[in-house]
């Protein structure tokens, strides 16, 4: 057994299946998408080579630029609202001594609900006539304060951002809470003996020690917000007037409704490159040394 483990062929035999699956389901689709992006093709007739015209077209396509901007709205909302809220809720739950497991389970419930269910649920809540939100507004404020949450171009994107955040923050809370509870009690107790109050403990001890998990959350946020699709597709399908269009929904419309598979592939490649660049920048900006307890 030991002799087999010292043989490099043993490790190669275990790694090759994984590499093969990775190449088949990730590397190959990316390469094929880039190749298709060089053609004008409807998926039926012969492909016509047009070079980089599809990629150049992206930066003059107002709908694509609008969808890219909406993806950045998702990203900014996640970084500015979701992650600070996740950290705050995690701190509060970590300080609770009774029913902590219940709170952990409660915040995680939205994560296990399908996105389609969440989208339908919030669609009902946002309904102008019978939605709970407008009903509550009518109880306190004049009728004119009620809003068409998903039909108003100015409010639709914010409404989807809130629904998306409600579904996803539970996963991040569990990650962050696990990191906080993993901090050795000796460090916290020593800080209390030195007279450190709760505020200083949070910012000088807890935050630095959970920084690696926060970095993981940032990476997941970048990837997730740039690929967001299902909740937008179900709630608004990119409307009204492309006010909630994101790159994924636009790619589907172009590729499978307008049958411009070449241009749709170019949008997919652009999404991949944008995520790659943002991840690289984030990795450089947040570069840090490993935390030692």
From TrEMBL:
Q: Which InterPro entries match?
A: ABC_transporter_permease (IPR051393), MetI-like (IPR000515), MetI-like_sf (IPR035906)
So which domain of life are we looking at?
A: Bacteria
The keyword Lipid metabolism is annotated on this UniProt entry: no
Provide one Gene Ontology biological process annotation: transmembrane transport
SUPFAM superfamilies documented for this protein: MetI-like
Q: Which residues cross the membrane?
A: 12-39, 72-93, 105-126, 155-181, 202-222, 261-282
Give a Gene Ontology cellular component term annotated to this protein: plasma membrane
- Protein keywords: Cell membrane, Membrane, Transmembrane, Transmembrane helix, Transport
List, alphabetically, the CDD domains matched: TM_PBP2 (cd06261)
Q: Which Pfam families match?
A: BPD_transp_1
Which family does the entry's similarity section mention?
A: Belongs to the binding-protein-dependent transport system permease family.
Which PANTHER family does the record associate with it? Answer: ABC TRANSPORTER PERMEASE PROTEIN, INNER MEMBRANE ABC TRANSPORTER PERMEASE PROTEIN YCJO
- What protein does this entry describe? ABC transporter permease
Name the species this protein comes from.
Paenibacillus radicis (ex Gao et al. 2016)
